[in-house]
Amino acid sequence: VVACLIIVLALVWTMPEIPKTVKTGEICLPSEIGPLKCGSTADLLHGYLEREIATKYDEVKRQDHKKQENHLKKVSARLMNIYDKSFWEMKPAAKLTGKEQPDLRKTDSNADMVPIREWCNGRELYDTKGFIRYGIRYRNGRLVVPVDGTYFIYSNLDFFESCNPSSGLPDIKDINKPIKHGIFKFNILEGEENELVSNVQPHTISTNRYYNSYSSYVSSLAELKAGDELSVKVSNITY
Fold first, then answer.
1. Could you tell me whether strands 211-224 and 149-162 are parallel, antiparallel, or unpaired per DSSP bridges?
2. Deepest in the core among 7, 57, 96, 109, taking most CB within 10 A?
3. Cβ(153)–Cβ(128) below 8 Å
């Protein structure tokens, strides 16, 4: 009994002193800067409840985040057991090989660069090393991206041009116009086409005097959005 009385007296002694004069419409509540604060009932209650609710919300949020992490770990382990490592490798990917191109369109006759419009796709890919996987679509000579993300894009082409046997010079109208090769993207929502990566080479004199051959490889990391359409363009499709 003596011990209980001592504890009660200690609690009473350490409690903050309540102001002797509290007006009507006022209240005293614990504050963030001190033991007690007296003032307007509405204002103090609003602030006090706001602090308490924020604390409880943060705690609930932490618990929910922890539950989500535990759930993801369990689901990941179960999916890994079902699909092995291939589940995490199911990323959009495609590789196409070219084929004979159609005649040049009139609208492209004076263009600086023209798109390669035909690629092996569908069943034609069975006879090549190409593929289209996990959401990538082929449409009118373009690859359509299914989801936002960082993509590695590349293109490799070989060009051949005829030359004048007497001089070895390229048999073209304008030798000063270089050979261009690049990858472009288009999104119907933006309505404009942008160059992602390109390569430019000058014409050279043929060593065999009959034809020239050029190799061009371009690659880059690109931030793409769902719906972006990728195409390959060259300065002269007859090459």
1. antiparallel
2. 96
3. no
**Domain limits of the chain?**
93-234
Task: Using alpha carbons, select from 98, 91, 90 the residue that is nearest to residue 231.
Answer: 98
Q: Look up the pTM and report it.
A: 0.62
The residues facing 229 across adjacent strands are 144, 186
Say if CB 50 and CB 42 are below 8 A apart.
no
| Weakest-pLDDT range from 67-76, 183-192, 198-207 | 67-76
Which of 175, 184, 176, 177 lies closest to 218 in space, CA to CA?
A: 184
Domain 93-234, CATH class in plain words: mainly beta
Query: What confidence category does residue 8 fall into, taking pLDDT thresholds of 50, 70 and 90?
Result: very low
How far is 25 from 228, CA to CA, in rounded Å? 63
